[in-house]
Write a structure and sequence with these properties.
- This protein is α/β, with parallel strands linked by helices.
- Helices cover about 25% and strands about 15% of the residues.
- It has a six-stranded mixed sheet with strand order 4-5-6-7-9-8.
- About 10% of the residues have low confidence.
- InterPro entries: Calcineurin-like_PHP, Metallo-depent_PP-like, Pantetheine_PDE.
């Protein structure tokens, strides 16, 4: 996810100074007090040497950055040779880097699964190669098929893995907007509006794109039903968010309009059709896009994000660092323990969401001009 705004827009600074923090409104809560001190490093999984089927997850590889491509190259060719990797979108902007990245991953893991992210469908550097982003999507899916990367639901032992196509829509955002500040429009801030190319009937500001991508999943309905009938455990995964609760509240984001370009109600409905309206202990959904490490249980489904993100984010440990990735979510026929420590989802596990508060956090308000 890229916005044309201030650096590190997706979260607040690692160590806000006391002058930045309104202690009356924010730091009264114990979880927030600890969050204001430092950004902790997520601990590596202890299950990397377990026997049996192991499933690792990662999102937002962004290997157009040389540091990220090096990270992929440095993954062991022996440690994961019998394992599964789920890649939850945003591999690379260019076709060449996408192919190289997925080939490197396939050389290291027995099974690699993939769903497309928004960066994967950018056409700005390859405008001459594709009529639009849907043509590029077809090329990427064809490439996956050629190198043995899975993009359809598959049964592995008692585990079902279900990739889900998705795209965001503005109406996904149900929470109050932030008033009184000059906040750039989505068209100005979000590069997708310029880097992606769509047919005239598909737009970001309505539901058409989100619905189009959701309908793409219908072709796999028979495979999904087979998984539901045969598998005792299911992992679904997407690039975009299925619920707004998986993103911090607007007042805490450097770009408060971010929730309008991150998720899909159609996606959550499809996830519930797979895992059930009440979820289950055997239900897990993996996502990406916002570059926040996240591990939360909502209405019976575990939602997890394990992003590599941008090099600058890792240096500030904004995504939990890099030593814990890829994260082992499943081993020995069971799901792994929660990510720990997991910055934002830890905060919301102890503090209720209060989106009706529309006062910008101090570390955000200093970037914006008040309306007169």
């Amino acid at each position: 996810m890229v916005l044309c705004l201030v650096p590190y827009f997706l979260s607040f600074p690692q160590k806000p100074s006391p002058k930045q923090v309104n202690t009356r409104n924010y730091c009264r809560r114990p979880a927030f007090r600890s969050a204001c001190v430092f950004r902790p490093q997520i601990l590596p999984s202890t299950n990397t040497e377990a026997n049996g089927l192991r499933v690792f997850i990662v999102s937002d590889l962004h290997t157009d950055y040389s540091e990220n491509m090096t990270w992929v190259r440095d993954l062991s060719k022996k440690r994961y040779k019998n394992d599964v990797l789920l890649v939850a979108g945003d591999v690379a902007e260019t076709y060449m880097n996408f192919m190289l990245t997925m080939s490197l991953l396939k050389d290291r893991f027995e099974h690699v699964f993939y769903v497309p992210g928004n960066h994967d469908l950018w056409c700005r550097q390859e405008d001459h190669r594709y009529f639009d982003s849907l043509e590029k999507l077809d090329k990427l899916l064809d490439a996956c098929q050629k190198i043995g990367v899975e993009t359809k639901p598959v049964i592995l032992n008692v585990l079902g893995i279900i990739p889900l196509f998705s795209w965001y829509h503005e109406s996904f955002d149900k929470e109050l907007d932030i008033p009184g500040f000059r906040i750039p429009s989505l068209e100005m801030a979000c590069k997708d509006f310029h880097a992606c190319k769509w047919a005239n009937e598909l737009t970001n500001d309505e539901n058409s794109l989100a619905l189009f991508f959701d309908v793409m999943n219908d072709k796999n309905n028979d495979l999904v039903e087979e998984i539901k009938s045969k598998c005792s455990q299911i992992i679904s995964f997407s690039h975009f968010l299925p619920r707004q609760e998986l993103c911090p509240e607007k007042r805490m984001l450097f770009y408060p309009k971010l929730p309008k370009v991150i998720g899909s109600d159609f996606l959550e409905s499809r996830i519930r059709s797979i895992h059930g309206n009440k979820g289950a202990a055997s239900a897990c959904h993996v996502f990406g896009h916002t570059h926040f490490c996240w591990d939360a249980l909502l209405d019976g489904i575990r939602y997890v994000q394990a992003p590599l993100g941008y090099p600058r984010e890792r240096k500030r440990r904004m995504n939990g660092g890099e030593d814990w990735l890829p994260f082992c979510i499943y081993y020995d026929s069971k799901f792994a323990e929660r990510l720990s420590p997991c910055y934002w989802s830890d905060y919301y596990s102890q503090n209720a969401r209060t989106p009706d508060i529309t006062q910008l956090a101090p570390w955000v308000s200093r970037f914006y001009t008040r309306l007169s």
